[in-house]
Amino acid sequence: MAHMTSPVLTVGFDLDMTLIDSRPGIHACYLALSERTGTYIDADLAITRLGPPLEEELVNWFPADQVAAMADVYREMYPAHAIAGTTAMAGAHEAIAAVQDAGGRAVVVTAKYEPNAKLHLKHLGIAADAVIGDLWAERKAEALREYGAGVYVGDHTGDVRGARIAEALSVAVATGPCDAEELRTAGADVVLADLTAFPAWLARYGA
Hints:
hydrolase, HAD family hydrolase, alpha/beta, Rossmann fold, HAD-like_sf, HAD-like_hydrolase_sf
């Protein structure tokens, strides 16, 4: 007789400011792009608003008709400038391990260019089960649905919107540009100070 298996626990994670502190690397890459193009970019300001797609930041510094080309240059320069200086967020390795130790899958869904997202995870030894890039806010729901994610962990109100559209539980960490109150107001189901609180939360959720 066919035996019904319960669906595998699948947890989605955002990348920038959720799993990794990419501010130093992104800062270095913006300065390098500025030097290469001769265009002023306030890198200190740019790294305070991480989350949305790169093009939404570049439009502040380049004419609209140059943004797509500048984004290509940035992405090409990124591996040389942004990977080495980027660190894992506190609790990142443990959060992924908690999902996998519970028999689940941890998938990374990010607005970042997918090859560069993979470079970050490889460099930091964060072993996600899948990495899906180039999706922001509501569009993150596409990957969350495809992988059957019941939970999505992120740091931005855009991540909360993506989770809600995918009908996944929205777990927010207040480690990025949005504070706990902003995340709650956006509709996050759970708000944690950072990922170090995630394994204990997951154990309660699983129970």
